[in-house]
Queue: 3 jobs
Job 1
Amino acid sequence: MTDMTQDTRDKSPIVRYAPMVVIGLVALIGAFALRDYLSFDALRENREALIAFRDSNFVLTVLGFVLIYVLVVTFSLPGALIATLTGGFLFGAAFGTVLNITSATIGATLIFSAARLGLGDRLKTRMDGSDGMVARIKKGLDENQWSMLFFIRLVPAVPFFVANLIPAFLSVPVRRFVISTFLGIIPGSLVYTSVGAGLGEVFARGETPNFGIIFEPHILLPILGLCLLSVLPVLIKAVTGKKDVLK
């Protein structure tokens, strides 16, 4: 780990920051150029063509879908919710959820790695060398990384790209980031993929799905319960003073 950190610090600023600069530029351009293409209206208008292409080229459709979803997440493009709905619409609730979670995790890991390459290790070095309040905050985060990672993934109000960048700036290990991302996004992905799986009937009635369904009590309360469960080790340690058993 030390050698890897040293290698990152030895890289030129161009090498360190280039991935995040590229991601930022593509995200900025995509926010304006792609918003009409990665939208619910675009999905509704092209649904028959998408279904026909899927039926004729299933494997190619799966690969193309995963690639597009990964690019959407990696470059923080508009349309992540629509991509999740499309996964359910094209592949059903079960297989669609698997594809959505896998694609989102890959994309999140790519942007996490880019941010960590540019700033993560340097910020960690500065925080490690600090004292006072900053040092105490850093120590608390280090001791409770698992709880923090699951918490920011489960809370619906935390934007997905924010949950990708915060761990990078805290130099969270890649393995820990991947595991917490994959498991932490399952509840939300399952909800919206299931909504996507029912879009056929919604389209037939000329209606629009309820995108705020995740905030309805019968769905939100179980997710909040998982959030509480994720921070339970922190609460227990605060009361007992014991070390984080997940560390």
Note: Residues 1-5, 243-247 have pLDDT under 50 and may be disordered.
Job 2
Amino acid sequence: MSVWDELVGQGPVVESLRDVIDNPAAMTHAWLFTGPPGSGRSNAAKAFAAALQCRDGGCGTCQSCSMVAGSTHPDVSLVRTDGLSIGVDTVRDYVRRAALAPALGRWQVLIVEDADRLTDQAANALLKSIEEPARASVWMLCATAVDDVMVTVRSRCRPVLLRTPPVSEIAGLLASRDGIDPVAARAAAAASQGHIGRAKLLASDPAARERRRAILALPLRVTSLGSCLAAAQAIAGEATARAANVADAKDEAELANLKESWGVEDRSRRPAGFAGELSSLTKDQDRRRKRLTRDAIDGVLIDLLAFCRDVVAEQVAPGGDLVNADVSADVAVAARSWSTESTLRRIDSIVECRRALEANAAPQLALERMMTGFLA
């Protein structure tokens, strides 16, 4: 099984990266992988990293390929954050690593997930390493869009643009790789809007499907100011709960590890310096929880956008394929009850909410404002 096999719907990208592997003269030291959420940006970067280290160009079975896939290769580093940004201290650590000679492979590869979250200071620290690269270092940045990365950084990177994978290919992957029923796989692939990870979750987790249906039922229930506030609270509560499901376990494990490393028990006297480490950990955990919550809210907003898109499609050109075919009855009701103009206003209110959240607005207030836009 090749390292490229799970890059669904990215044939041109795979072909171009393979050409680089086969033609070392075309290699460069900085790459920028962009594409919509779920398109596989970091997966493409990891596949490319494995292929660069592999003697056979990414066979998928050798030690190098297996180590990259398992995130244990000493010469392939993944730069990521659970918080809202990637700070300069983090980047400086990896810049120092980029200057080292490879220990096992042929390249020192550094993959920056969510490069759009680099602070200005962090981006400037990275820029120096990209401008004056070590002989065997390769930076691979991942972001949703080219414009999300500082211009001085992106101008020094070779772009790799991924597309939204086709529904048929996502469904085929779920069926062949995960053993999911083809009909369920196709429905999940359509509902995921090209997000492979979310498609797998929807296909395999009944609770996730139920949460999505509950969210998609909200637009038809908003008939008064009170229902607007209730809908906003439901979205915020759902996002907070989803974030807690991920964050609580991580918080507990990290706290236990910190106490163990300092030899601290719950009732023991705490040594000097422990309080500072605990405060730093707590701040990092709060940032992670905030990011997880905002990401969960954004996922809800994307679902609502897809629902409104289906309504417009039904109003303008009825009978076409729907993203949310499983709730087609609700789409039909909305298409009859709303005017096309009011549907577009609803879409505008969702887009405005997403922009407000990107600008760090209070989630509850932004959601309440959005839901008032759903009033006919």
Note: Residues 167-204 form one domain.
Job 3
Amino acid sequence: MYLDAAMIESKTLAWGGVVAVRGLSHPISVARKIMEEKPRLLASEGAERFARDHGFQMCKPTDLIDYEQRQHFEKQEAVIDRPATVGCVALDANGILVAGTSTGGVANQPPGRVGDSALVGCGLYADGQLGACSTTGDGESIIPVVLAKTAVDLLSGDRHPDEAAQMASEIFKQKVTGEAGCILLDPQGRVGWAHNSQGMAVAYITSAMDKPAVFTRKESELYSQKDLLVSRSN
């Protein structure tokens, strides 16, 4: 199991990332620490050495294989190639935007393979004037489209994050084949997301909400909003 992770903040564009690492329990925490130092991107044994030197929790690489994957492997069955990426975007009380992305890659990936998740502009991006984005999907297709940066740039002109995310998804489909999704947050705290896959699990909460909104497909959110409008009109 090879892991990639990265984080970026909008005020100074400080960022940090690790790629092709094994034996790190929380690679995103290591990426956060690297933000404070240079170089910004550490790979493989160098990243693992950095983590050990800074007291981060280490583990056996086999500990990162979940039960279901292990069962398929032991039965010599094909490993399920399901999404293994977790991304987040956040806005704090000082107006600073942050994006973070962490992944276990794809099933049966070759040793040392690096996807989009830890690459600034591809798997994540943040701009204090526009917004922050994290992506998921087929890294080999996301990278040439520079999907996270593309989505953030589309926030210009006070465009709503939902519209920008959908536009970025359309650009992705026009230029490459594959599946991808993105989550977006702007300096006003507005949320947006889109995907061209069958589903994408998303949860978000704002200061005006008393509990998170949770969805597995964009259509579910649209139906929920429609029902809310109907109930208010009644």
Note: The radius of gyration is 18 Å.
